Amino acid sequence: MNLLLSKQAIVIKKARHVSFCIEARRFANIPGEKKSTAEEISALLKHKNWNFLLESSEIPQKLSPDVVHSVLDRNKLVVNPKRLLDFFDWSNHNLGVTQHIDSFSILALALCNSNNFTPANRVFDEMLQRGYAVTDILSSLVKCFKECDSFSSKPVAFELLIDAYRNKRMLNEAVSAFLGFKNEGFSPSVLCCNTLLNELLKGNKMELFWKVYEGMLEGEMSLDVYTYTNVINAYCKVGNVKDAKRLLRVMEEKGCSPNLVTYNVVIRGLCGTGTVDEALELKESMEAKGLVPDIYTYSTLIDGFCKKKRPREAKVILVEMTDRNLVPSAYTCGVLINALCNSGDLCQAILVLEKMIAAGVRPNAVIYTPIIKGYVEDGKFDEAKEIVQDMWQKGILPDILCYNTIITGLCKVGKIDEAKMCLVEMERRKLRPNSYTFGAFISWCREAGNMQVAEQYFWEMLDRGVAPNYATFTSIIDGYCKYGNIAQAFSVLNRMLEIGRLPNVQLYGILINALAKNGKLPDARNVLSELYNKGLVPDVFTYTSLISGFCKQGNSEEAFLLLDEMCQKGVRPSIVTYNALIGGLCKSGDLSRAREVFDGISGKGLAPNAVTYSTIIDGYSKAGDLIEAFRLSDEMPSQGVQPDAFVYNALLHGCCRAGETEKALSLFHEMVEKRIASTLTFNTLIDGLCKLGRMSEALELVKGMSDRHPPDHVTFTILIDYCCKNGIMKEAEDLFQQMQERKLIPTIVTYTSLIQGYHRLGDKLKVFSLFEEMVARGIEPDEVVYSSMVDALYREGNLHKAFSLWNELLDKGLLKGHVSETLVQSWCEKGEISALLASLNEIGEQGFVPGIAMCSTLAQGLDKAGYSEKLPMALETMVKFSWISNSMTSTDLITRCQMDGHTESVSNPPKQSAFEVALQA
Length: 921
Description:
0% strand, disordered N terminus, Pentatricopeptide repeat-containing protein, mitochondrial, TPR-like_helical_dom_sf
């Protein structure tokens, strides 16, 4: 600070010295003609009609800045300063060039010396308008002041310059002027300094504020209550209540008594930092000193206690404010009413409203809104609507927010008809619905799954000229994504772009998440690129959605690339991100890499949660490493994570897969005792018992399932599948009947088990009957069912229908190559190859023309079944009926089959049990 002042002083002194030298040289060398002109003007200025005399002479042609300055300098103590100002204005009109800066300074000082402060202010304003630098003005004013001893008793001119800068909001210059004058030994009055401090405080120019304050202290100025109050206010403004309280004590120690404003500033500062109890104590201390709190004091305390969610204490303060006859403002009452409503004390809020009205304070719609909201949150919609009607009767106009509060509440609880009636009344009252009004209806439709009606509200909103807000766009786009209509979601997005609304990160995240969940990862990647192009940075939710999508598809490499990408963008992965990676790696069988990720979590500043542990434990359990799975589950409590139902179920499943029945039963009983067993738990153990052939125990377990965890479709599917595989079809039929009696809908897995079971027994009628029933229920058959149907038709002798269905399924990609090959191999069993070749000839004669895919699969199937020597005969039939060209060989067909992907080039994955397939379904 001292260095700054020293530098500024040097600049001012140098500027003053240079200016003084220049002026001295100029006046020493003023030509005789200019000197005589100045003397002539000085003589004429003594006459009342000086203006006329000057205009009638040749003086206007002889005017120059030097002449004007000489006239002013000669007459500053002789001629009335107002006349000098008039002459200065006259010369400006006739001169046409810029006056000397010292002319302004002499004139301003002369006017101040004679207490003509208003015209002096005008002179300073003109100096500022002419753009003189603050250092030049300082130098000139100080020089002219010190050259005339008669000016020494009137340093008020310096204050006027500071005020001139301050009034024009040139606060930097005002502070520079203050510091410059102080360094020259001039001290502006405390009033001038206080006014400047106050202006700096209002303008939030805190650095300049402290410079002025420190300058006052260095100048040993006598600070008054206004100075201290300004400084205390400055401390409070930045939350430094500690120094504010210290200064309050200092001013009292120095005999400067704080006034009500001072205390109010500190009370406001304390309330602003949340120390409301100390603020209340200060108010009491103030009263003890004879100062009476005013409306501002009470309002500040009420607002402070309300913000701390202590409305009851706030109400006590309000009561005290009224037993003193101080009428609270509508704002103060509104703050208290809002706080009471937010704390659930609606009765007290209404009581405050009644007292407010009784005190003559007129409430407005803003005050009524929290009460309306309180009734709505309590489900008291009639009371909320009565409040609105009461407002109309009292001439208080409810606003759109009052109606939106009721409409939103009604929509949330599904009372859509009442919400529509509110909308009708609102429009009848000439209140125009806004985006929040329509947003409430759209949200209800989305939650109800009725996106068609949601879209109708959306387009009605646009037709009425109401621009949807981000919440509305997000709601409808999220709804379409939630119900799988991604194309429509993008249609709404395009509409959003058309009206000039750019999607935010949240919206892009919703779209990316929907695409990733639906397996459309290339599209999700494209949306991510668009997000980058808009200059946006995806959030952790968006990245995690994509990573999870790639993990579910087994593409862990792409998932890790995304992980690196998000880290490079400065987005910190969450535990959910790592959980997705671990899950994907476990699913793809890469357990060692999954463990690497798991072990590295703590180094990322994160802690594994229950999902993390259950995922990795499930991975080890499915891999058959029960020792590590149980070790991890034992480790969980020491890491602050308790094993939950998911962990226990994963361990139970692992034990059942490994045939560790006794360990599985022990886990099961432990889960029942801990009351964490679920239907899934029972199903897991039932599946394990069935695999071991302990059907009777499994059935007993089913009988023990209670209302808390009743059997579901998976339970019955497990049992039905076991019966079908073991040829116990009567028991399977009974279980199927029980399932339907319990209103449980059979799934594709249930029907597949039954169809395969009857197919093995050769009961074609049951196979066809079950197939028709399944289709009638709207269940899409899988390739196992389709292959069973083709095989049943073939063995029944309905060759045309069998081969037609088989050909159609191959063309549509509904049958994989290895399934078709299995069909061919089964038809070739027990030396039935001749029958198969005869069948081909028969369907050819019936006019059936299969596609190249079926011909290729036939050739591949015969080759794999060990009948390659019969391939020429099959080929001859295909050529005979023009199914293939006569130039095509059996090798061509087999190669074609492999190239088209009709056969699998890798080993088949381990076959899943009906329980695992049912879970996925």
